[in-house]
Structure formats: C-alpha cells, structure tokens
TrEMBL record:
Keyword Metal-binding annotated: no
Pfam families (UniProt xref): HTH_24, ROK
Keywords linked to the UniProt accession: Carbohydrate metabolism, Xylose metabolism
Organism of derivation: Planococcus shixiaomingii
Family classification: Belongs to the ROK (NagC/XylR) family.
InterPro entries listed in its UniProt record: ATPase_NBD, ROK, WH-like_DNA-bd_sf, WH_DNA-bd_sf
Name of the protein: ROK family transcriptional regulator
Lineage, uppermost ranks: Bacteria, Bacillati, Bacillota, Bacilli, Bacillales
Amino acid sequence: MKDVIKGNPEFTRKINQKILLNLILKQEAISRAELAKISKLSRPTVSSIIEDLKEQNFILEVGFGTSAGGRRPMMIKINKENIYLIGVDLNPDSITIALTNMGLRILDSVTASITSTSTKEEIIQHMFEGIDALLERSNFKEQLVMGIGISSPGQIDSKSGYVYSSNTIKNWNAVNLKELFEEKYKINTYVEHNVKAMALRELWFGNNQNLKNFIVIKAGIGIGAGIVTNGKIYLGSKGNSGEFGHTFISLDGPQCKCGNKGCLEAHADLVAIKRDILQLASEEQDTVWKSSGEITTSQLHAALANKDPIAVKVVEKAGAYMGIGIVNLIHLFNPEAIYFGGEMNKLWPFISKPLLEVVEQRTIPNLDSVVIRPLENAPSLDSSYNNIGVQSAAAIVFDKEFQIPIRRV
C-alpha cells in the first residue's frame, strides 16, 4: 500500500482509506452504501477510495447483496488470498520464516537453527535464504507481498528498524534490518520487538478483539511485555517499553544478564529456573539432578510431568515471583486482561497457582478484576495450523498497513 502522506488532503484520504479497510475487515462482506453510512463519509469519497483499493488488489467484489428497495448492492470484502505477508521470527536458538495470507494463514514456512556463537551476518544470511526459498517456491510475483515483518528480541527502534543490542542473542547488535531488507527485496519491511508483535497478533486476531487495554507477557529465555492501551501498542519515548523482565523484584537478588541484580528475569525466566534447580539439587544432595551439568527444556518438562519435587518447588517459586511482577503491571496499567505466552506457557499448570495467589493477595481493590490466562491459539485465524511467533511477525506488517495513522505536528 502506498504510504506517503503529503499535505492535508492526502493525509485525510489516507485516514479515510484505513477507516474503510478496518470496516471491511470486520465484515464477511459489506456494500459501499453501508460503508458510507457507518463511516459517515460521503458516497463519492467511499466509491473513489474503494476503486483505488480494487486497483491495488486489497478488496474484491463478491456478488450482489439483498436489496432494501432499490438495486441490489455489490458486496465487497478483503482480498485475503492474493495479497501476502512474510513473517520472520527470531529467537535465541532458531529463526522461523513464513509466508501468510492476510488472514495470517501460514502457506509455507522454513526454519533455521542458530547458536550462541552465530554472528549477526550469519543470522541475516539465514533470514535471506529463508525468504528466498519461500519466494522461489511460490508462484506469484514479489509485488504481491504487502510487506516483511521481523520480530526480534533486544533494544529496537521500530521506526527506523534498527536493532541496538540483545541480552538473549550474543552477537545481535548494531544492525538496521529495515534498510537491509528493503534494499534487497524492494518490499516494505517493519521491525518490532517480539513481545510487542505478539500483542499485535492478539489485538488484530485474538479471541477477544473487543479488548482495548491488555498486556501480553512473553516468558522463556528472558521476559517481556507487550502493552496495549486504547487499542494501540504503547511504545514509550524510544520504542523500548515493555522490559518487564528488568523490573526489580529484590534489591540484592541474583545477577541478571543485563548486569543488574534482582531483576524479575533473574528470578523467574527459564535460565533462572534451570540454574535454581541445579543449585537446590546440590544443596540437598539430590541424586537425580546431581550429575546434570546443564538442563534442557525437554528435561525440565519431563521432570515436571513426573512431579519431581525439586523441579516443582523451583517452578512454583518462579511463578510467585512472576505474580509479584504482574501485580506491578496491574497497578501501573489497569488492564482488562493479561495473557501469558512464550516458551514458559507450557509451564502454566505449575506456575499458575502461586502466580494467581500472589495476584489475589497483593492487588488493591477495584483493580483485581483483570483476567489472567495463557495466550491461546486464536480460532478466528484463517490458519491450517498456528505458530504464534511467526504469525506475530506477519501481524507487524498487518498493523502498519491497517492502523489508522495519527498526524504528528
């Protein structure tokens, strides 16, 4: 979609275009007359914008609707099948790249593994190779791709697409992803922190799209929060809001990856849980864990499934710390809901009880009605299978293209 705004008339038309796209998106099919009535735009304005959107293949005419006394109206809908998105989801141990339609239905995907020794050049090359493979296997022209969305951990300037640094990926720093990808593919590219991308997916495609104030937590190797207020992602002054894992839980707690002590992340993410299991096992001379130099996530899941007392104790303690952090979020933002996602979502049966107990005990009255539950796959998505990470990356493009712009003066 064209994204250049010059002067008041063009800016106004851009806003009107996105208002109509949002209205069409929420309907199975709708007529021009209904769009004019709901949007309160003039019929000539609606007709002109709809013709532009048809030329850009954003909408389709799908047949005549029921007459209300005159001619039967031509119905229109979003053209999900002929416009595509590319999502790139970067994690500490892997990169997943997918081609989706505008309903986030995953059409094709590839995955590459990375390690703690991977250089940023190697990571970028994996991304390029994955996109190249998807484009080569598809049977359409690159011009039909609306955009590339990249979700990444780290300190990110989402406006420029620049990644400053990351605590979870060793060599991931000082790279302008937007510039690199737009130069190579000539496709609009948008970069966002991975947990904010998850919040965008929930905002546009989640089970409760009527919610306008909620928080998505991503917990795994690191902990972050995507904060939605009044239907918009809260970015902060430099776009780096949501560093939930680096809020302080104790004055002199364990050393965190960021260099400070006592961060929530140092108490309650996967790295902290595995560290504390080994430490407690050593103190109690536990024979099951004693010989473990390093705990894999699959070993942790197996231990919890077998109700290993040390694993259960440590994970429940992490859940209590997470509860303290969530109480702080509730008091600061007064959200309607908090969704718990990321790799630690699988630990929810063990984390949830201590977490919810702390929230119930510590949240002040009138703020304690917030819904707290695991982030779920959204049945509303047009998808044969759900991959929250890569769909979230694609949702970055969707949000940038469909959000109603706010003029900055």
